[in-house]
Design brief:
Helices cover 43% and strands 15% of the residues. It contains seven helices and seven strands, in the order E-H-E-H-E-H-E-H-E-H-E-H-H-E. Helix 4 runs parallel beside helix 5. The radius of gyration is 17 Å and the shape is globular.
């Protein structure tokens, strides 16, 4: 039986690397992108050339998005075994410049959508009757703050606690874990010059390194792991926190 994984935000960065890795591991792919544009279409066509894949498009904050994305994936590929909540946004501003709109935007994408997608996916996994796995992509800033990223850190911390809470509520048949990346050399991070230069291992991580951890947590070798948030951060979290911005 071919297992199916739905990856949100699969057209770029970490999400794209996760999608490629899970396909290499033998999963059929539910490929989500925020919009139907030339870049996303090209990435999906590459995925479809590698193996069974279904494209689901939409804003994860829309009221019916969670049930629709899960439903369309199941309709296209027959089932759902793994959900990877990767879609997220960053609001980088000093705390005193942040607004209520900033709060609503980041928590809607980074926390609310992950919760609703997890609920919709878990209901489908339980209907199928043979378990499943959910992996949330948080951040090193789930664990340590960074000046200028107050809301981002707060949202990722909330997603980390949601991971732990769902791990308890969905046991024993559905496992829920998180990966917490540090500075990762995605195309967006490099272009925006948002990579923290102070990394003990001396370099940023790669999307493929994050994807390898997601793959492990989604798979059978991690059958006794649930409720974990695993850092993939080059030891960034072990440093003294609260460094001045700049």
């Amino acid at each position: 039986m071919e297992r199916v994984a739905l990856v949100t935000g699969a057209s770029t960065g970490i999400g794209l690397a996760v999608a490629e890795r899970l396909q290499a591991d033998g999963y059929a792919l539910g490929f989500h992108s925020h919009r139907d544009d030339e870049k996303a279409r090209a990435r999906f066509e590459e995925a479809a050339a590698r193996g069974p894949a279904s494209w689901v498009v939409g804003d994860v904050t829309e009221p019916d998005a969670a049930e629709r994305l899960v439903g369309e994936t199941v309709a296209g590929l027959g089932r759902l075994d793994v959900l990877v909540n990767n879609a997220g946004i960053t609001v980088a501003k000093p705390a005193l410049e942040l607004t209520g709109d900033d709060f609503d935007a980041i928590f809607s994408v980074d926390v609310k959508s992950a919760f609703l997608l997890s609920v919709a996916a878990a209901k489908e996994m339980r209907r199928q009757g043979d378990g499943g796995a959910i992996v949330n992509v948080t951040s090193v800033h789930e664990h340590v703050p960074r000046p200028g990223f107050a809301l981002y850190a707060a949202a990722k911390a909330a997603l980390g606690m949601l991971t732990r809470s769902l791990a308890l509520e969905l046991a024993p048949d559905i496992r829920v874990n998180a990966v917490a990346p540090g500075a990762i050399a995605t195309e967006r991070n490099v272009e925006a010059d948002e990579l923290d230069p102070d990394i003990p291992l001396g370099r940023p991580g790669t999307p493929a390194e994050v994807a390898a951890l997601v793959s492990f947590l989604a798979g059978d070798e991690a059958a006794y792991i649930s409720g974990a948030s695993v850092l993939v951060d080059g030891a960034m979290a072990q440093q003294v926190v609260g460094r001045p911005a700049g």
